[in-house]
Amino acid sequence: MAAYAWRGRNARGEAVKGQLEAASENGVADQLIAMGVSPVQISPLVAESKTEGDNWFERLNRVAVTVEDVLVFSRQMYTLNKAGVPILRAFAGLEASNSKPAMVDLLKDVRSSLDQGRELSAALARHIDVFGAFYISMIRVGEMTGRLTEVFLRLNEHLEFERDVRERIKQAMRYPMFVMIAMVVAVTILNIFVIPVFAKVFAGFNAELPLITRGLLGFSAWMLAWWPVLIGAGVGLGMLLRTYLRTPSGRYAWDSRKLKLPIVGEIILKATLARFARSFALSSQSGVPLVQALTVVAQTVDNAFIGSRIEQMRDGIERGESISRCAAATGVFTPVVLQMINVGEETGELDNLLFEIASMYERETDYNIKGLSAAIEPILLAIIGVLVLLLALGVFMPLWNMGQAAMGKSGG
């Protein structure tokens, strides 16, 4: 998409100007007419050259804007809006007080867009990879309803929940991942440095070795002979898998499969449904139409399989079916949740009950995450025990047999 500068007149006949991005000049004209502006002149913008100070090395080493930065930004904008600070002055203050170059550039670009007459949602949409579709949609609703301050507060709470879930999962998985990495490193070192030494010793026995020992020696010899191929195959397989997961079909298949994984599948499902319930409740409470809310929420649950089920709900609602019936048809909600949705639909308290559903799933997710390490530890201990047993039997059984044979000869 290209950037275009435009001049026109609004509904009151006042001269206005600004910049918009579109595929063509006709696209800009359509956007202006939808905004209630009669276009007078539309011309493409010439891209400005980069400054010498912003060289490739600085851009390469620049830290990108993170979720934590967006979280702090939302909290600051809530406070500034609540205090009645004009939005342009608020962005100028945030830009001056921020020490992160990437965030400063983002705030500068948003403030520049606001200076050109764009709405805040349109200015943030230029950085959709940072804020996401749900965030921008909520800002647009806040502008339309005059509840921008409340929307910033709700978005801050939503982002805090998202961050807490991710951090708890990372913390629970840190120990199992460390143990798995240590096991892989230990097996690699044994196969490269330790077992070949024992292979030289066993070669002088001139006797048939036990099956376990022959298996260990064969695996070690195969690993030493083919390690370049193994590394190349591992890298190639990883790149191929990554490419596949980026395709719509690959992502859908993986998102569907990971919900059925043992131990972690249930946690992923409940965390995703909690995200859906809170996002849906926040959208509905802010006045977003149901169909539009479900369209946006389906894109923000970060799971293609659950997203397709939400789109299925949206299609059913468009056909005139009830929310509870559409939710039941998805097959992902528990009977208790379906009953709560039904009650909320009948009483008109769907927003509050959706928040209750989100809280329920959040509590269950938190409980399951706390027990994640305890559930994985026995499996890891069993795997470590089997590996140690195989190595001990494979290495010491020939030595034991040799000792037995030596004792028999000395006794005879």
Q: Numbering strands along the chain, what is their spatial order in the largest sheet?
A: 2-1-3
- The H-level CATH homologous superfamily of the domain at 264-370, spelled out, is Type II secretion system (T2SS), domain F
Number of helices: 17
Helix content: over 70%
N-to-C series of helices and strands: EEHEHHHHHHHHHHHHHHHH
CATH topology term of the domain at 264-370: Receptor-associated Protein
Model regions low in confidence, pLDDT < 50 over at least 5 residues:
47-54
- Let me know the number of strands: 3
Give me the secondary-structure category. mainly alpha
Q: Which word captures the global form? A: elongated
Oligomer: single chain
- What composes the largest sheet? 3 strands, antiparallel
Mean pLDDT: 80
Per DSSP, what share of the residues sits in E-state strands of 2 or more residues? 5-15%
The top-level CATH class of the domain at 264-370 is: Mainly Alpha
**In the CATH hierarchy, what is the architecture of the domain at 264-370 at level 2?**
Up-down Bundle
Radius of gyration: 30 Å
The end-to-end span amounts to 92 Å
Structural commentary:
The chain has a 3-stranded antiparallel β-sheet with strand order 2-1-3, covered by helices on one side. It has helices at residues 25-34, 56-60, 67-82, 87-97, 101-115, 120-125, 128-145, 148-203, 211-246, 248-258, 264-285, 290-300, 304-318, 323-330, 335-347, 350-370, 372-411; strands at residues 2-9, 15-22, 38-44. Helix 8 (148-203) packs parallel to helix 17. Among the domains are: 2-44; 63-160, Type II secretion system (T2SS), domain F (Receptor-associated Protein); 264-370, Type II secretion system (T2SS), domain F (Receptor-associated Protein, Up-down Bundle), CATH 1.20.81. By secondary structure, it is mainly alpha-helical. Mean pLDDT is 80; it is low at 47-54. The protein is built from 17 helices and 3 strands.
